[in-house]
Amino acid sequence: MTTADATKRDLSTMLRPRSIALIGATDRSSWSRNTFDNLTKRNYAGEVHLVARRGGTVHGRAAATSCVALGQKVDLGLLMVPLAATEEAMADLAASGARNAVILTSGFAETGHGGAAEQEKLAAMARRHGISVLGPNCLGYVNFLDDVPLWTGAFRAPSQTGPIAIISQSGATASFIASLAYQQDIGLSHMISTGNEADLDSAAFVDHLLDDDRVRAIVMFTETIRDAHRFAAAAQRARAAGKPIIVLKIGLSDVTARSAQAHTGALVGDNRVFDGVCKQFGVVRVNSVEDLLFTADVIARTGVLKPKGLGIVSVSGGACEIAADRAQLEGVRIPPLSDSAAQALTEVLPSFGTPHNPLDITGGAVLEPDLFEKALRIMTGQPEYAALACLFDVPVSEEQVNDFSMNSLRHIAAGLKGAPIPAFMLSHTFRPVTETGRRVIGELGLPYVSGGIAHGVTALGHAWWWSEQQRRAASPWSPATAASPSDRPRTERAALDHLARHGVPIVPATLATDEASAVAAARALGGPVVLKIASVDIQHKSDIGGVALNVEGDEAVGAAFRRVMAAAPAGAKVDGVLVSPMRERGLELFVGCARDAQWGPVLAVGLGGIFVEVLQDVALRVLPVPPEEVRRMLGELKGAKLLDGQRGIPAADLDAVATAIARIGDAVVALGPALQEFDVNPLWVRGSQVEALDALAVWRD
Asked: Are 52 and 21 in contact (CB under 8 A)?
């Protein structure tokens, strides 16, 4: 489905159907048996109808020969028929009045060009009949909140419903995440497998779930973004609603790209582009299933955190040090104790204890477990902290339920209860929450995160990053509109002139057609100059010796003119030589724009020289981009401190730099979709002076 078709869908009857038809039901299929058992044994309150071509008895019930033969409208049909029978089954479903379909059937785009053509036919049929389609090649979904387990395989329901929705292109991965949620006692609201996304994609479900007040966080496993602009729109809505989207997206290697193609027919977009998109729209990106789930759990608990730090309390000095190191890696601040807090803690700690953040309450807690409660009450009341974590473990077996652990847990629960900031207990290591653990947590009312220090502090780092995105002013964004400009700059001078028309400061230049005019141009500039050959047939001038730098004096300019002109290859059309002032003692930036297959024009910004060529130190965003977003891009660069000034070079005026780069992006957008690439290299910066020294436009033709 294209962006033009991507109007917001009401998926209420898709996710909360009053009646479901299992089409292609048969006792011979485990998919059919699983789905029927899930619906009839897991509290689904609606009607379940069976449809089989030959009718008869299926799963102990009478089956109709078609959806029309049911004699009543159903809200949703699950298609489990072979590929060749899909078209007939869809037509029958539409004729019965249904408007939702979930398609288990595989053999579509994931199999190659032939399957992709079949998938296009399926999508066209869905549009023609007005049917919303989930799939094909998907396992279905489970709406845990409303007891709709339309899942074609076995699954482990979480021990409790909760505010976290799972949307996964891979059904098996969705099931893995749900199993982890059960193991860690994390509540879920939905589990949705989107498969090949012939019609409804992940973003469509994000958009729908944002309107459900019961859902506070959305996690996604994705192989590709089918409709980039719909995803961006959903991300902007999520940010406005204060609901985090946490994404685990593959695409770091060629191996995963090939795997995704085989799995769902996905075209994996450039990984760095998607990383920039997440930063641009406030989407949290993680690298593991564990971090996906724990980050959602933590943010659902904390909401937007204040721009302050983390307080940590433990009975182990070693654990404090591990947590502090992890916080450093994740960008989580650990502010020192205030004098008043240190004094208050001195009065309650043993004489051998040292007030500090992270706070080790020492082994004295073995004899005085109320040290936990006293320390936590002091720490949660300090204005330096936006959140607090107490490191301790919940028992995993009855053998671990002893006086020390239970007394400590009671005092921890009391110390965390009613805290004015988000405060919870974090396990030392990744550990499952067993039946014993659930009992203890429930009895004491413990706000427990079982991910261990590594995953827990990583989740807190993501929570602070997301909170920062929530606080910053959102810049309205819409996709770059297509244009058909009459002007297509093909030379350096034409490209620079195009930038100038869009308010980008460019270096002065004079086109010299002979040696005398080159000398005159250099005299007029009154200092060292640069000479560059001007030719529509020569893109990379320095590679052929078509550039002369730091030239001064009539004789030297004349010789440089002759040398540069002689560098032109045979047959090249040469307009002359551009004469410009030599710019020195400044910082050189690289600004590039390229067209991404999914996202359209993308802006790349980096420091020149080794930072771009060797270290690939660039920040990326989808165009158009406002100046304030460009400033954030500059701050992401590994070499960002160079902008603060260096030997003899003044600090860059970041507002002037960001404005110039944003205008370069606007100039690129104005050139339309036929533009393949546009580079400004370098963009020269010295204090508040910013100039594009060179520009190159590459067209698709």
From this structure: no
Amino acid at 30: S
Alpha helices in 30-170 (DSSP H): 30-41, 86-95, 113-129
Task: List the alpha helices (DSSP H) in 135-216.
Answer: 171-184, 202-209
| Closest alpha carbon to 270 in 572, 512, 598, 578 | 598
Say what the alpha-carbon torsion angle 103, 104, 110, 113 is, to the nearest 10 degrees: -50
pLDDT at 255: 45
Fold of 508-581: Dna Ligase; domain 1 (3.30.1490)
Q: Distance (Å, rounded) from C-alpha 131 to C-alpha 127?
A: 6
Gap between the Cα atoms of 690 and 664, Å rounded: 12
* Res 7: pLDDT: 61
**Mean residue pLDDT across the chain:** 92
- What are the E-state strand segments in 252-372? 284-285, 309-314, 359-360
Owner of token pair 């079949």: 118
Per residue in 29-82, pLDDT (tens digit) is: 999 999 999 999 999 999 999 999 999 999 999 999 999 999 999 999 999 999
Domain 587-699 bears CATH identifier 3.30.43.10: no
d(Cα 470, Cα 240) in Å, to the nearest integer? 8
Number of Cα atoms under 13 Å in the Cβ half of residue 68: 8
132-136, 263-267, 543-547, 590-594: least confident range:
263-267
Q: Quote the CA–CA distance of 213 and 414 in Å, as a whole number.
A: 29
Is the pLDDT reported for residue 260 higher than 70? no
The tens digit of pLDDT for each residue in 67-125 reads: 999 999 999 999 999 999 999 999 999 999 999 999 999 999 999 999 999 999 999 99
Q: Are 416 and 425 in contact (CB under 8 A)?
A: yes
- The helix or strand, by DSSP H or E, that contains position 375, with its residue range, turns out to be helix 370-380
Q: SS3 for 351-363, per residue?
A: CCCCCCCCEECCH
Mean pLDDT of 305-316: 96
Q: Taking the domains of the chain in order of start, what are their residue ranges?
A: 3-298, 305-471, 508-581, 587-699
**Which has more pLDDT, 147 or 492?**
147
Helices 86-95 & 113-129, crossing angle to 10 degrees?
Answer: 10
Distance CA 244, CA 299 (A): 7
Architecture field, domain 305-471? 3-Layer(aba) Sandwich (3.40)
Residues belonging to the chain: 701
Type of residue at 129: H
Looking at residue 184, its pLDDT comes to 97
DSSP symbols for 198-220 = SSS-HHHHHHHHTT-TT--EEEE
Local structure of 248: helix, strand or coil: strand
Please give the C-alpha separations between residue 266 and each of 163, 597, 649, in angstroms, as whole numbers: 29, 12, 47
- 3-298 homologous superfamily: Succinyl-CoA synthetase domains (3.40.50.261)
Q: Which uninterrupted H or E stretch holds 328?
A: helix 317-330
Tell me whether strands 385-391 and 359-360 are parallel, antiparallel or unpaired. unpaired
Give the Cα separation of 659 and 652 in Å (integer): 12
Q: CB count, 10 Å around CB of 217?
A: 25
Taking the C-alpha atoms of residue 29 and residue 47, their distance in angstroms, rounded to an integer, is 21
Q: Is the peptide bond before 358 cis (omega within 30 degrees of 0)?
A: yes
Q: Is 645 helix (H, G, I), strand (E, B) or coil?
A: coil
Domain 3-298 and domain 305-471, same fold? Reply is yes
| Residue position matching structure tokens 């977003």 | 629
Q: Say if residues 579 and 509 touch (Cβ distance below 8 Å).
A: yes
- 60: phi > 0 → left, psi -120 to 50 → alpha, else beta; which? left
| pLDDT the model gives residue 34 | 97
Say if CB 401 and CB 393 are below 8 A apart: no
